[in-house]
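TASK: fixed-backbone design
INPUT:
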């Protein structure tokens, strides 16, 4: 009888200590899979250059109009597609001098590559066939990437680019 109770206790202990929940670790390779849109540039107002402040403001203005000028799509097969409209941004002066307008670009540069993502480190091959390593912080549906590491013109001065998962 004691052996039977001991066996039942062991089975109960083992069944409760093993979890069937999916791994929710934001550093797992699955956490990056999906389509991510750049929605903001976080900078320090005290030390940021005027270029960084302008980039932040333009990105915020376009995001508020549901215009996403940088999109990253990570797939399970370790390929990534990028869509970047930064080179096609236009800044127009509103008639009557009432401010500036930045229309949503209709053109974009597309690129495909391969990537790896482990323990918060993203490595991909850029358009010059160079390996690029970037520290990435993922918290649920938000991804932070050092803007300088991505080296996107006009957004590589300082700060962190904020991407939101669709």
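OUTPUT:
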């Amino acid at each position: 009888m004691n052996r039977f109770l001991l066996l039942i206790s062991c089975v109960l202990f083992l069944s409760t200590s093993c979890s069937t929940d999916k791994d929710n670790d934001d550093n797992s390779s699955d956490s990056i899979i999906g389509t991510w849109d750049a929605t903001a540039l976080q900078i320090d107002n005290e030390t940021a250059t005027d270029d960084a402040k302008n980039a932040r403001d333009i990105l915020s203005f376009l995001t508020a109009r549901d215009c996403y000028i940088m999109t990253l799509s990570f797939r399970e097969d370790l390929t990534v597609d990028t869509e970047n409209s930064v080179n096609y941004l236009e800044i127009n002066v509103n008639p009557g001098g009432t401010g500036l307008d930045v229309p949503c670009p209709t053109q974009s540069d597309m690129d495909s590559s391969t990537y790896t993502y482990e323990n918060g480190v993203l490595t991909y091959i850029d358009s010059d066939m160079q390996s690029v390593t970037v520290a990435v912080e993922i918290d649920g549906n938000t991804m932070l990437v050092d803007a300088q590491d991505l080296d996107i013109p006009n957004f590589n001065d300082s700060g962190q680019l904020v991407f939101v998962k669709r």
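COMMENT: The chain is about 20% helix and 35% strand.
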